[in-house]
């Protein structure tokens, strides 16, 4: 039940971010949830590799511990991607005046 709430809030924050920047809301809401699951999968792979490489004495039968580690990786991945998208959308667009565009066109004609 708590996992569903977590997924709901991740989707909600991505949805609201897309709404603030006039993007496709549902697409980014679902994207946020997918990013969470990708993060949990990456966490599982990293954990498996770390156990084998460093010969960690980790009990793989402990599903609660593995779930907590996967949750941390998933939330961290969703959090990082959220702020990367937000930073990208906050960048100001380059604005060119109408006169500058006409000057560019006249310079091209003069060179030919």
Written account of the structure:
The chain has 112 residues and is mainly α. It has one domain (2-97). 81% of the residues lie in helices and 0% in strands. The chain contains 4 helices and no strands. Helix 1 crosses helix 2 and helix 2 (25-54) crosses helix 3. The longest helix has 30 residues, at 25-54. The termini are far apart.
Task: Please summarize what this structure is.
The protein is 81% helix and 0% strand. The chain has four helices and no strands.
Roughly what percent helix? Answer: over 70%
CA-based shape: elongated
Structural class comes to mainly alpha
Q: What's the average pLDDT?
A: 88
* Low-pLDDT segments: none
Q: What is the CA-atom radius of gyration, in angstroms?
A: 23 Å
Strand content: under 5%
What is the strand tally?
0
What's the number of domains? 1
Major sheet details: none
Order of helices and strands: HHHH
The N- and C-terminal alpha carbons lie at a distance of: 69 Å
Number of H/I helices: 4
């Amino acid at each position: 039940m708590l996992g569903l709430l977590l997924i709901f809030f991740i989707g909600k924050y991505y949805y609201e971010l897309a709404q603030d920047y006039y993007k496709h809301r549902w697409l980014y809401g679902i994207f946020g949830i997918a990013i969470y699951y990708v993060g949990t999968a990456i966490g599982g792979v990293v954990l498996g590799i770390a156990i084998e490489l460093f010969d960690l004495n980790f009990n793989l039968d402990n599903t609660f511990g593995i779930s907590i580690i996967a949750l941390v990786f998933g939330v961290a991945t969703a959090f990082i991607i959220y702020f990367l998208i937000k930073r990208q959308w906050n960048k100001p667009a380059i604005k060119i005046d109408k006169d500058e565009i006409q000057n560019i066109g006249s310079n091209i004609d003069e060179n030919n």
